[in-house]
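Incident log entry.

Two folding requests arrived from the same account within the same minute. Monitoring flagged them as a possible duplicate submission, but the sequences differ. Recording both here for audit purposes.

Request one:
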Amino acid sequence: MLLWRIAFVSFPYYGLVRDPLQSGYFMRQKQGKISLKTQGRRLYDVTEKVQHWVVASGILEGILSLFIQHTSASIMIQENDDPEVLEDLERFFDRLVPQGDPLFRHTIEGPDDMPAHVRSALTGVSLSVPVIGGQLALGAWQGLFLYEHRTQGRNRTLVCHLMGD
């Protein structure tokens, strides 16, 4: 029987993870949060804020996990060159999950709340991005976007966890 053991030394926002397959090898990790204030329903490019956080971590090679702590917003990778792409996505979601649809019973938080939950379920609340040379390894036309699904602005929080060396 093969047993896997990983020793984990955890600190509030920084720690070391020992790789049991390579004696003496340590990977670093950094955890933190990025807070954002949205202005209503649309996609917000957060690539620069996340890249700044990655550079400040001092980790050059690894994998970045992002998680948004909300059920009515999402995080996604999308085209960052042509703003019409983002507008087309919003028009598509307006058609797919219309506000005020009589199908929805959960309306206590407003007519935009249940559609926001459905949009979030369809688009996702977490993703992973490789980090190479201290930079997000995104494609030429890719950016990281927080997708606010509520019509009113909200305070949103992205949890970042980077592991590597």
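Request two (distinct sequence, not a duplicate):
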Amino acid sequence: MTPIAQTTRSRLARLCGSGALVALALAGCASAPPGPKAMADLQPTRGNNVTGRLNFSQNGDLVRVSGQISGLKPNAEHGFHVHEKGDCSSGDGMSTGGHFNPGGSAHGRHDASAHHVGDLPSLKADAQGVAKVDFESRGITLVSGPQSIVGKGLIVHRDPDDYTTQPTGNAGPRVACAVIQAS
């Protein structure tokens, strides 16, 4: 082989080799397994008609919550919390217990430095009584551990959360209940 052919072959091998490394790296990213997922099917408590479905998906330490809730009071804000027990059997949602609060923090806004793990952003219903949910949280997890919400109760309240009344936010009766289940 001539020196020019050897140089050309060597350059081609380097180019193909680096391309193969890039392709291998991209393939590794594309095949990364998805993080844990969960869902919650909200059912109305006795005397109410609020329903909805929420999806939870975790990527690293970030959980995205998305879905839709209907049957709410139109143009109103509603408290929305994860509760400590995954039990909706009582008919009024009270069997879910209090807000999920493994760290013993004060009740507050979801984006505040101090708040219950179960304090979620309030729901805002439109003129048809529908709330679209789409937010991300680093305070909850779908992975087994003290802050995992899998197996916990999810409650929609009739009234807005005032974010100051301890320990509940004075959000009124529970109008819908679900158990958050791994999916």
